[in-house]
């Protein structure tokens, strides 16, 4: 839920903005940050000094970079829940069964973030998630919900009002000619997903890439995340059919949800 500006701590927001900019630029200098933020040099320097002191930023020469403290925090965030660890097992199992790319995604700040991934060794479709010169896929990748199968399966669980707020926040960026860029087209697709229970991304995220996704529910009925399987369109049609993928995916999600119920029962 979006917070009112009056509820936010401005100094904390500024530190987070600095962190975002350092990562976006793949490292940056103090003068560059001062110019971008249009703030006093002393103000930006104090934030950088504080972030360095706590290990969240490192300085290499004149360049500031993201520190490895985030790696420690990120690993904790994606493994602290037993449900996430069970999802990781499900992802690995489905990847081994189909020999295709599989993700477990959750919603964070109106987008989908990959919490666990298992990639086909010959994958052509890679996201620039770390910095502009590094193209290996990693957990932690953010995706716009409307352009990927797992994201659309998550949207289908939300109210139309909540979907509208997410669109207001991020828009409907175009990835390919097939990406939904109008609300009407997206809601038509979402209504079909609500009816059939699975989402299809037909070259909407990357040309030549198809994917099928299904939401994962927690024992209390809330949405935990989504599992999606991606494959080049030629392989999905030739080596494995859409029906087979849907069957494998549905079975995987059903088994995961059963394990989630059991884990809650055993912990009571």
What radius of gyration results from the CA coordinates?
A: 20 Å
Biggest sheet strand order reads 5-4-3-8-7-6
Name the CATH homologous superfamily of the largest domain.
GAF domain
Outline the biggest β-sheet. 6 strands, antiparallel
Question: For the residues shown, what is the average pLDDT?
Answer: 89
What CATH calls the topology of the largest domain is: Beta-Lactamase
Please state the overall shape, judged from the principal axes of the Cα atoms: globular
Q: Identify the CATH architecture of the largest domain.
A: 2-Layer Sandwich
Supply the CATH class of the largest domain.
Answer: Alpha Beta
Could you state the order of secondary-structure elements as H and E?
HHHEEHHEEEHHHEEEHH
Tally of strands: 8
Distance between the termini: 30 Å
């Amino acid at each position: 839920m979006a917070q009112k500006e009056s509820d936010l701590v401005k100094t904390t927001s500024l530190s987070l903005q600095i962190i975002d900019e350092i990562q976006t630029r793949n490292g940056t200098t103090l003068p560059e940050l001062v110019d971008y933020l249009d703030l006093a040099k002393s103000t930006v320097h104090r934030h950088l000094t504080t972030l360095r002191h706590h290990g969240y930023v490192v300085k290499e020469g004149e360049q500031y970079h993201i520190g490895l403290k985030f790696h420690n925090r990120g690993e904790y965030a994606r493994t602290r829940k037993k449900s996430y660890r069970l999802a990781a097992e499900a992802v690995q199992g489905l990847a081994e069964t189909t020999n295709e790319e599989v993700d477990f995604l959750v919603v964070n700040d109106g987008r989908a973030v990959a919490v666990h991934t298992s990639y086909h060794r010959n994958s052509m479709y890679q996201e620039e998630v770390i910095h502009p010169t590094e193209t290996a896929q990693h957990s932690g990748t953010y995706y716009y919900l409307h352009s990927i199968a797992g994201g659309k399966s998550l949207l289908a669980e939300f109210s139309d009002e909540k979907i509208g707020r997410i669109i207001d926040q991020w828009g409907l960026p175009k990835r390919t000619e097939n990406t939904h860029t109008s609300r009407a087209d997206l809601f038509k697709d979402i209504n079909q997903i609500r009816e059939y229970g699975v989402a299809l991304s037909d070259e909407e995220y990357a040309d030549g890439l198809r994917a099928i996704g299904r939401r994962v529910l927690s024992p209390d009925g809330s949405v935990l995340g989504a599992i999606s399987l991606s494959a080049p369109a030629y392989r999905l049609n030739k080596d494995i059919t859409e029906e087979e993928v849907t069957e494998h995916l549905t079975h995987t999600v059903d088994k995961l949800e059963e394990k989630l119920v059991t884990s809650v029962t055993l912990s009571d």
